[in-house]
Amino acid sequence: MRFETLLIVGGGLIGSSIARAARAKDQCKTIYIADTSEAACKSITELGIADGVADGHADHFAAQADLVILCTPSARLATTAMNLMPSLKAGAVLTDVGSVKGHLVQALAGRLRKDIHFVPGHPIAGTENSGPEAGFAELFEKRWCVLTPPKGTNETAVADLIAFWKGLGSLVEVMDPSRHDMVMATTSHLPHLIAYTLVGTAIDMETVTNKEVVKFSAGGFRDFTRIAASDPVMWRDVFLTNKTATLEMVDRFIEDLTALKRAIRWDDGDMLLDNFAKTRDIRRRILDADKD
Amino acid sequence: MRFETLLIVGGGLIGSSIARAARAKDQCKTIYIADTSEAACKSITELGIADGVADGHADHFAAQADLVILCTPSARLATTAMNLMPSLKAGAVLTDVGSVKGHLVQALAGRLRKDIHFVPGHPIAGTENSGPEAGFAELFEKRWCVLTPPKGTNETAVADLIAFWKGLGSLVEVMDPSRHDMVMATTSHLPHLIAYTLVGTAIDMETVTNKEVVKFSAGGFRDFTRIAASDPVMWRDVFLTNKTATLEMVDRFIEDLTALKRAIRWDDGDMLLDNFAKTRDIRRRILDADKD
Ligand SMILES: NC(=O)c1ccc[n+]([C@@H]2O[C@H](COP(=O)([O-])OP(=O)(O)OC[C@H]3O[C@@H](n4cnc5c(N)ncnc54)[C@H](OP(=O)(O)O)[C@@H]3O)[C@@H](O)[C@H]2O)c1
Ligand SMILES: NC(=O)c1ccc[n+]([C@@H]2O[C@H](COP(=O)([O-])OP(=O)(O)OC[C@H]3O[C@@H](n4cnc5c(N)ncnc54)[C@H](OP(=O)(O)O)[C@@H]3O)[C@@H](O)[C@H]2O)c1
């Protein structure tokens, strides 16, 4: 056991899942959760997934914690970190689960206590649901968790956090924050933006009713609606904080779509075929990776 | 039983699924399948899903069939219909399963025998796999099947075909061909084009490797790869035959995406939030519809 006492700040989908997994996999002795939402605190208490719940100030828990995981909405991660800073125990590891890393690392650069080890993180796992009830212990099982420690971070702290995530069932990768943000813009942020757009475009069609859209959604549309049902606030923040990478991906996507559109207009079947054939291989590789 | 003898032309995913379902649900006495692919015929024979299999010419089967369902790739539907025309039994119902309807109706307009009842159809059901082995009897269960009979079509023929599809477990809706093509452009064709584009854009990123794309696909990308693994030939044909509706949808989509892109660039969080919030309702309605 690398960390005896764990403090989770923000006990929603991700935070409560970490609490459940840490307990189930015996990754710490004591689990505290702090959440500013009264309803969330009530629910966390009822679920019995923490040894102590703080509604609002968490300084007394922070002073005891060997590992603090920030699981608040991403827009509040930096402020939450700075507010807790004075209370943290010397030598504690501070991490987070935010979906964008460069922005947070920049916001905290040079503002952290020297005796605290900050190792930013991002578990690539989630659902379209929010809140403590939505969490479950298996969420991180065989999912990647990316850590983006700044240069010079204490190696033991990084190793301990890697061991913790592996203990929850995750696979762990260490990456540069800006690389993380570019990879995620490709595999997560652009897909979400596209899904939101597509569902919106369909809703706005004057000649096709929403009833028809619902009725005939099995033709492909349905898969997009699950992604487009994700938390709007979280995704607004993701796009605004990972702006550069997102905009680059959107531009490339529009270019590629425009090229396919042109091929359709000019009956260039070969061009369409070439493009549609090359995407199958990735699916096969993803399914193969599942088997490993 | 409305139809004693059934001929399925093209025994791939859709055709073989119809054969399986018609047998399982006792919707006809005799099932013949014709397929130009030798491998498919061999597989159909081995699977034992037909009472007779024709490799190539199906005129002898066509002469006996009360219902003929064309399940070939969509680009060949019109030619296949015209080739079979002389052999068909007087009074037979001729239908198809093609994903685009306006194009086929136009291609056959005025060319059909007067004693044949042509009722175009499209089951909104499928998977990303092809071939006889990929089929299964439950494919149409609780899925919509749209029929687009031209004005003046014999009403008994339409009623019989509706009863047949309902017998396979489908829900049936009758629609105008051009309305069908617009609804499908929205709920199926645009989603497929977008999925192909998105997966292609990700593959082409120089700064993100395909290995990384596969590894971190759980963040949203994964769902797109299933759709983008659909049959390239079939989808090329869908876009080229449903060109007008597809191009209109692509233009609307690009407009909407460009507006969101602009909101990201100018930090217009409210605009993003409004757009992301409105898409959740459709998901809820789709899940509600599942329960019915
Ligand atoms: N959901 C995913 O798929 C996913 C995946 C990977 C990473 N993440 C990241 O995980 C983080 C949390 O996401 P989530 O889906 O778990 O959200 P969630 O279910 O909405 O939970 C967040 C919880 O934190 C509370 N909170 C807000 N501000 C706080 C503060 N200053 N101190 C303590 N608690 C606070 C919220 O209360 P209120 O409701 O009152 O605000 C809420 O109960 C985000 O940074 C997100 O980027 C999410
Ligand atoms: N897949 C879906 O999700 C889906 C959903 C709804 C509707 N549809 C429609 O269903 C139709 C069939 O799709 P599918 O997915 O079942 O395709 P499939 O699995 O590829 O099967 C088509 C079969 O028809 C054969 N064939 C080609 N030309 C023929 C001809 N002239 N006479 C007899 N057989 C012929 C093909 O042989 P070869 O391999 O030698 O060409 C193949 O065995 C298409 O029109 C499509 O638009 C598909």
Report on the architecture of this protein.
Chains A, B: It holds the Pfam family PDH_N. Chains A, B: Belongs to the prephenate/arogenate dehydrogenase family. Chains A, B: Its EC number is 1.3.1.12. Chains A, B: Keywords: Amino-acid biosynthesis, Aromatic amino acid biosynthesis, NAD, Oxidoreductase, Tyrosine biosynthesis. The structure is a homodimer of 292-residue chains. Chain A is an alpha/beta fold and 292 residues long. The first copy, chain A, folds into two domains: 5-175, Rossmann fold (3-Layer(aba) Sandwich); 179-291, 6-phosphogluconate dehydrogenase C-terminal like domain (6-phosphogluconate dehydrogenase C-terminal fold). Chain A has helices at residues 13-24, 38-47, 59-62, 77-84, 102-108, 155-167, 177-204, 210-215, 221-227, 232-241, 243-265, 269-278, 280-291, and strands spanning 5-9, 30-35, 52-55, 67-70, 93-96, 117-118, 121-123, 144-147, 171-174. A six-stranded parallel sheet of chain A has the order 3-2-1-4-5-6, sandwiched between helices. In chain A, helix 7 (177-204) packs across helix 9. The longest helix of chain A is centred in the middle third of the chain and has 28 residues, at 177-204. The first copy, chain A, is globular and about 65 Å long. The structure holds NADP nicotinamide-adenine-dinucleotide phosphate (2 copies). The site of one NADP nicotinamide-adenine-dinucleotide phosphate has 26 residues of chain A, from helix 1 and strand 2.
